[in-house]
Amino acid sequence: MREEPRLIPCSFEYVYLARPDSIMNGISVYDARLRLGDRLADTIARHAPLGDIDVVMPIPDSSRPAAMQVARKLGIEYREGFYKNRYVGRTFIMPGQEQRAKSVKQKLNAMSSEFQGKNVLIVDDSIVRGTTSQEIVDMARAAGANSVTFTSAAPPVRYPHVYGINMPSRAELIASGRKIPEIATALGADHLIYQEVADMKSAILEGSPITELEMSCFTGEYVTGTVTPEYLEWVERNQLS
């Protein structure tokens, strides 16, 4: 055991995995997600043609607090355009690309009355493999959206997560080795905007005595100091999902 152990919580818990009513390490998950929305709104304002956006929509449920804050801060109407089937589990951890794609269509339904002829800004909590995001963009267009701006309350997931979350392979991560415009093209979105790493960190830790977060899937910096390129290659060879 280290003589001076440090508490370094996993950022992805606050972004996506934890229940919104949780208080983890003295940090309200719900409040952290609201702050993620506040900071994302600032980034959107710098990069998106706001005058052309008609509505802000969340992907239920974990992105709802961030989407509400984006709409509030940018002064754009907030609408719920996706209906969620609560009997389908989390898609990004499901085994196999085909199963994930099938499950997205079973999990969400786009209500055409909310999309028809509109320029839609969609807020999701994160983009991992991109399967869900691609299907969501396709559904929005099929429902009649005029344009789709896709935004993520988390930064690009570019590196494997080896501390317990099933993201073992760089090849499976849509942001690995791609620039943001290339990711937008792969998703089929008109515009794509991510949260900045520094903004995510400050949003989660604001008002907390905790000073560090485990952010390896966003930065490639592994807090244990024992994750080598050779280990990552071994994980990719042996634990593909």
Automatic annotation (TrEMBL):
Pfam families: Pribosyltran. Keywords: Glutamine amidotransferase, Transferase. InterPro entries: PRTase-like, PRTase_dom. Coiled coil: none annotated. It comes from the Bacteria. Residues 32-150 form the Phosphoribosyltransferase domain. Gene3D superfamilies: 3.40.50.2020. This is Phosphoribosyltransferase domain-containing protein.
